[in-house]
Amino acid sequence: SGVGRWCCRCFPCCGSCSQDGAGGGVEHCDSAFLEPGYDVCPEDLDDLHRAAWWGTVPRVELILMLRDPGLDKRDKKKRTALHLACANGHPEVVKLLLHRHCQLHVLDGEKRTALIKAVQCQEEECANILLEHGADPNIPDVYGNTTLHYAIYNEDKSMTKILLSYGANIESENKGGLTPFLLAVLEQKQQMVEFLVKKKANLNAVDNFKSEIRQQNPHFLEVPRNTSQNSDLGKTSDS
Q: What are the residue ranges of helices labelled H in 100-189?
């Protein structure tokens, strides 16, 4: 297959976020992928945001008709009703907000679109609705991650297929220089590695990435490929 066998020791540690090159010289923040859902205190939400979070469609309709609070009004953490409905998996609320012409690409406090939150939280129906209405899957968040990075991290093959069908960039790089394929290798997502190989992801990205690490850290050592410590990462089913 040309993929070969890789050991995650060939890459810098992914357990921390480094701005100054510590741990291999390339910024990669694992915290970007942890706790994908929102931490919500209902008392901090206004009526529209609270209704969107709980998924109470009739109440959302009533608030929109009688109070006109602003569809794209953001809460203290810059989240819109659309963000909250997507993160908590309420497709009927998402449909209602889109029918009322809410904005698709408002960014929350971590510069994430509602589509990123839907993908992060594995709310496929909400993500599908957004994509059908023209949501852009390639807008990066504060870490440079796109929807495809999060789908790969979640090992969500179905969502990955959908995103690619709507034009998600398979070679997009986050701020750590990781494409979705490199992320799959680094995080040992074997099935996603194989899937992206079949989707023609750039395999040379692995060597390019390791070359960048060596330039920034001359003492960086690669584990020999033929040692027993090597994982099966990157070894496709037909290799």
A: 114-120, 124-132, 147-153, 157-165, 180-186
Give the sign of the dihedral formed by CA 145, CA 197, CA 208, CA 213. Answer: positive
Nearest to 60 by CA among 96, 112, 24, 9: 96
Where does residue 68 rank: exposed (0-12), middle (13-18), buried (19+ CB within 10 A)? Answer: exposed
Asked whether residue 18 falls in the same domain as residue 108, the answer is no
Residue type, 123: E
Residue 89, domain extent: 34-175
Domain presence at residue 185: no
- Considering the domain boundaries, does residue 182 fall inside one? no
Under 8 Å between Cβ of 13 and 24: yes
Domain-embedded: residue 5: yes
Q: What is the pLDDT of residues 50-107, one digit of tens each?
A: 999 999 999 888 888 777 668 899 999 999 999 999 999 999 999 999 999 999 999 9
Q: What is the pTM of this model?
A: 0.77
| 168-207 per-position pLDDT tens digit | 999 999 998 899 999 999 899 999 999 999 999 888 877 6
Residue type for 121, please? C
